[in-house]
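Quick illustration, no need to memorize.
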Amino acid sequence: MATFTSSTQAIPSVNDVPRHIAMIMDGNGRWAKQRFLPRVAGHKRGVDTVRAMVKACISQGIEYLTLFAFSSENWRRPADEVSFLMNLFFTALQSEIGRMHANGVRLHVVGDLQAFEPRLLALIREGEALTANNTCLTLTIAANYGGRWDILQAANQLALAHPEKVGHYTEADLIPHLVTAYAPEPDLFIRTGGEQRISNFLLWQLAYSEFYFTDTLWPDFTDTALSEAIRSYQQRERRFGRTGDQIKSAGVLPAPSL
């Protein structure tokens, strides 16, 4: 497994194009409601947007894309909607795994997956195994995932692996046990749908990510909208605790206005 720089332990490299984008895909239900359709119609349309985003990220040179598909708190939704989402997840994976593999996409599904029914869990493992050696884009689907759960499970694994170090653990000890340890920290976090919060998503990993919020509902989020988010990212001065003068003196300047 590759080792990536922690943004609180060392200054990571900054590229003009974000290496890793994380997204909360919000607004499916409201998109459907605006069209006098059932909420599930919005979720189905949202799958089309996922497919388009994977294609757009490959085109833009993004290496990692992480999507928040179902949070540990989403079980609180109406039972019929949860059931539909589980079935949609299964059918979407069934239809897309072959396409992902053909396009060089490596699939990871992260979260407390034991809550899922056996057929879904088996399909996830099958898709991950099939695409394991692909290098064009790493697509991570966070399902039954919560940021606090992630940190807790990592801490528990670390305690079991190294009980002799209790009381002396470091970030470097914990990071390999996070479920996204195979990926660098996200450079850019995008949330559609107008809300401006991270909703228990990647709490550890988003420590120094740039945030981009848009009112655009997920089914309407296009490759043009993604380009706008990346342009916003390119105007940011990523200081990682330093001053702007330090960055300028080091010759690290923000990207020019586009």
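The two ends are 37 Å apart (CA to CA).
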